[in-house]
Design goal:
With 473 residues, this protein is an alpha+beta fold. It has a domain of 152 residues. Helices cover 34% and strands 26% of the residues. It is built from 13 helices and 18 strands. The strands form four sheets. The protein has a seven-stranded mixed sheet, sandwiched between helices. A five-stranded antiparallel sheet has the order 8-16-17-9-18, covered by helices on one side. A four-stranded antiparallel sheet has the order 11-14-12-13. A hairpin with a 2-residue loop joins strand 6 and strand 7. Helix 4 crosses helix 10. It is globular, with a radius of gyration of 25 Å. The two termini are 44 Å apart. 37% of the residues are buried.
């Protein structure tokens, strides 16, 4: 694992989790008086702590919010150059631009070539799922330790940059796969996730429950077998389509297929006969039974499963946090780390599609073609999974990105849709259908239906939590 690791600062006390032989311990010691960012960075450098996390709801985190300028503009130590990452946060109905990370660069021989010291302020960074709320410094410290232990690297200042750094570390094993590519000739073709809903039959409307299942780590899982292009693509008229080659294709589809939007989701994002699609969706059109004509395309001469090694590491880390309870015994920290690990994977992939903001010349990947191919693969994998259930007589009624809704009279989520929970899905929630029939009416959009069902599930869970608390008392 990278060294040094992260530490947590809470009301003048430093918390640091470390491994001592086969034992782990949580060290605590009192920090000197801290008045500004310079004090924090200087102390972190002295103690060889690369990232010092300010605990949410601590005195210093509150000071940053209430006196941002004083915290940032106070005199810093000599030869220190600071870059500040801001994030817009809402506090008491007032929008504020608050720092989420402060990075120091120390001049060495007249050149800024060493990054040494970061202050991470997670409370004002909503990109974190749990770390922005963990106001218990010991819990925050152990959660960071668990993450760093399963990833074998330090947690960066945001989920996306952590995911990207993890990719870059794996990418050093095959540097030729990550060489510069000229994508300027590619048409700007997106890869939207699957959003679909259908009206209920009379028989279905009489069912007792609506089950919503979530495909776990859908995009990371898709990376394990997504073929991505290496280098610059070339334009070809009427290319021969092959699943082993990455590409973007202009196709014309005719006829009827099993994925037509009636009982199963549509095969392609656009109902038009002629459209541009990424390679995995061409395969879906063929498999659905459509007559497909490939008019032109941009294809890569080299294609590889570029992110498969990284994705397998993420999935292995997730499995370790889920299964190795003796290795990671603190349940609250383990659950928080699991949620952040999922966000690190998703955000790391999403960063491939983000225009780089390269303020210090760091290595940045901007590969929208990779991102869109991964999303297309995730969509197709979900559709193939739905088709397998359909062949057993189970038809979905709604699909929203990585979630699938089914109806059943069976009260047991394990057997309501057989084998689904063994195929990488997890139960998101179960609701009584009679109370939510309106969401399946044609006038209710997919987005509205999804929002209403999620809200109902949230309220249902709150009622259960209150009931459990009352019974415990």
């Amino acid at each position: 694992m990278e060294s040094p690791v992260s530490a947590v600062l809470h009301n003048g006390v430093i918390f640091l989790a470390e491994q001592m032989g086969k034992k782990r311990r949580l060290k605590r010691w009192k920090a000197p008086p801290i008045q500004c960012a310079g004090d924090v960075l200087a102390y972190a450098r002295e103690k060889k702590i690369h990232r010092l996390w300010i605990c949410p709801d601590s005195d210093l985190s509150t000071f940053v919010r209430e006196q941002r300028e004083n915290f940032l503009q106070a005199p810093l130590v000599s030869e220190l150059h600071v870059h500040e990452q801001d994030n817009t946060s809402m506090y008491e109905d007032e929008v504020k631009l608050l720092p989420t990370c402060i990075t120091a660069f120390y001049a060495t021989r007249g050149k800024m070539d060493l990054s040494w010291g970061q202050i991470v302020i997670p409370e004002y960074d909503g990109r974190w799922v749990t770390l922005c709320y963990l106001d218990d410094p010991a819990l925050l410290c152990i959660t960071l330790y668990y993450l760093e232990h399963v990833m074998h690297m330090a947690v960066r200042s945001a989920p996306a940059t952590t995911g990207r750094a993890w990719m870059q570390r794996e990418g050093r094993k095959r540097p030729t796969w990550y060489r510069e590519a000229d994508l300027s000739a590619l048409p700007d073709v997106g890869s939207p996730p699957l959003y679909w809903k259908r009206p209920l039959t009379a028989e279905e409307a009489g069912k007792k429950y609506v089950y919503v299942y979530d495909k776990r780590s859908q995009h990371v899982d898709a990376c394990t077998d997504t073929v991505l292009g290496v280098g610059t693509p070339r334009h070809v008229m009427r290319p021969e389509y092959t699943r082993r080659c990455a590409g973007l294709y202009h196709i014309k589809v005719r006829g009827e297929g099993v994925w037509n939007g009636t009982r199963l989701p549509p095969a392609l994002p656009d109902p038009m006969e002629e459209q541009w699609v990424w390679g995995p969706l061409v395969a879906v059109a063929y498999d659905a039974g459509y007559d497909v004509e490939v008019l032109e395309g941009y294809v890569w001469d080299q294609s590889h499963r570029v992110l498969a090694g990284w994705a397998k590491q993420v999935l292995t880390a997730r499995k370790a946090l889920e299964m190795e309870v003796e290795e990671y015994p603190y349940e609250a920290a383990r659950k928080a780390a699991l949620k952040e690990l999922k966000m690190i994977g998703v955000a790391g992939i999403g960063l491939l599609n983000a225009q780089p903001d390269d303020w210090r010349g760091a290595e940045v990947w901007y590969r929208p073609d990779w991102y869109r191919t991964i999303v297309a693969t995730a969509r197709t994998r979900l559709m193939y999974g739905v088709l397998r259930r359909e062949q057993l007589g189970y038809f979905p009624v709604m699909v929203v990105a990585d979630s699938v809704a089914y109806l059943s009279d069976n009260p047991d989520p394990e057997t309501a849709v057989p084998e689904l929970l063994k195929k990488g899905f997890a139960l998101k929630y179960r609701l009584p259908l009679a109370s939510h029939l309106a969401v399946f009416e044609p006038e209710c959009s997919v987005a509205q239906a999804n929002r209403l069902l999620n809200e109902a599930a949230r309220l249902q869970q709150e009622d259960l939590d209150v009931k459990e608390t009352t019974e415990d008392d």
